[in-house]
Design goal:
The chain has 386 residues and is α/β, with parallel strands linked by helices. Helix content is 30%, strand content 28%. It has three domains: 2-71, no CATH class; 88-305, Rossmann fold (3-Layer(aba) Sandwich); 310-370, 2-Layer Sandwich (Alpha-Beta Plaits), CATH 3.30.70.
């Protein structure tokens, strides 16, 4: 079975015998093209581009190949109707993936529900990107099952996905506007509508003046915002963002965060991976933490924090030193420049501590129960002994 599509022309090297891109720019292009045209890539298959290009576009032919004696086929069924918020948009069921002797993902299961923001978290090399690439059908799992919108993935379903890979790979010699229009048309957005959406998104991300500039003239942060537009310009139902905040300054992190929340408000389902725990904590509804290729926790932000809660109080006060020294009330104190954090002793309650401080005539400016941050939970789980 052959699947053909067009990619903006420029001479690039291919993919080596191990399935890795020889040109770092090619990784993003290859991933985006795969999703846009509904192709399936397999680790270990060679892909070579033409040596000479006569025009600004060339045709790439890929072939579905047998793996372990089984031919993976794409179905031709139509799109499903949008699913309710109670139904999972994505189901990963006991999925594993290895590259040679290295296990990238080991028996992973998770569910991403419609209309929610799902954070896929973990340290470098944990298996996040491999998981994402299996969800979008760039890499086939060795075992297990993946479903999108209640079905196994098909080329038609891939049109409902917007994917931002971690690797940068914009076509450096193409103008920004032409490039965005090209990616919109790959996803079947007609010309005039594509032009309208290009202008709309460039304005939204404050990049209008860069429309006629080449990608090579953009800063890293600008390039990241352009790549984000390529992932959402066709208005997908499922948006998958791999390290979307990479290279962005704090102002643009906030801008992109607001846009992600707007996409959620419009009913989109969003999966993103990030190392910025404070951002994930602000916008995620649910998270899955992967470490050493395995899932170590999953749940809503509230459920996860509740499971890791500790009996601690943040204080800012004058006086009450004798109460703070009482080990029947407080087991440990961490002092900061603007207050302190008191870990309550076993059996002690915040009410007990507050009562004793008031009785000691302490002036209390702050008294607040502390819940663990997502950063604290992340560090605790990934540093646990295997």
């Amino acid at each position: 079975m052959r699947v053909c599509g067009q990619v903006p022309g420029r001479r690039l090297r291919g993919i080596n015998a191990n399935g890795a891109a020889e040109n770092p720019d090619f990784a993003f292009t290859f991933d985006t093209f795969a999703i846009a045209r509904g192709t399936t890539m397999y680790h270990g298959r060679r892909f070579v581009q033409p040596e000479n290009l006569a025009s600004s576009f060339f045709v790439v032919t890929t072939e579905l190949m047998e793996r372990s004696g089984t031919l993976l086929e794409s179905s031709s069924k139509g799109k499903n109707a949008l699913m309710s918020n109670n139904s999972p948009s994505v189901v990963v069921d006991h999925v594993s993936k290895s590259f040679g002797e290295f296990t990238a993902v080991n028996d992973l299961s998770l569910a991403v529900h419609a209309g929610r923001i799902f954070g896929l978290l973990g340290p470098n090399g944990a298996g996040k990107t491999t998981t994402i690439r299996m969800i979008v059908n760039i890499t086939a799992p060795d075992s297990g099952r993946i479903e999108l919108f209640g079905r196994q993935i098909t080329p038609e379903l891939q049109d409902r996905i917007g994917y931002l890979p971690e690797e940068r790979g914009l076509y450096k010699k193409m103008k920004v506007g032409d490039q965005l229009r090209f990616f919109a048309e790959l996803k079947s957005v007609p010309g005039k509508e594509a032009d309208r959406r290009v202008d709309q998104w460039l304005e939204k991300l404050k990049l209008t003046e860069w429309k006629n500039k080449k990608s090579s003239e953009l800063s890293k942060g600008m390039q990241q915002k352009i790549q984000f537009i390529t992932a959402v310009i066709h208005e997908p139902d499922l948006v998958i963002l791999d390290e979307p905040f990479s290279g962005l300054d704090p102002v643009n992190v906030d801008l992109l965060k607001e846009i992600i929340l707007e996409l959620k408000a419009s009913g989109k389902t969003i999966i993103f991976s990030t190392h910025q725990m404070e951002v994930a904590e602000r916008i995620c509804d649910d998270i899955c933490l992967i470490n050493r290729s395995r899932k170590v926790l999953e749940g809503s932000i509230r459920e996860v924090k509740r499971a890791f809660s500790r009996n601690a109080v943040a204080l800012r006060l004058v006086g009450g030193e004798t109460v703070l020294a009482d080990r029947t009330l407080i087991s440990n104190i961490q002092r900061h420049s603007d207050g302190l954090e008191a870990l309550l002793a076993e059996g002690a309650t915040p009410q007990n501590l507050l009562k004793e401080l008031l009785a000691a005539d302490a002036t209390i400016e702050r008294f607040e129960m502390i819940e663990p941050s997502l950063h604290d939970i992340f560090v605790e789980k990934v540093t646990e002994k295997a």
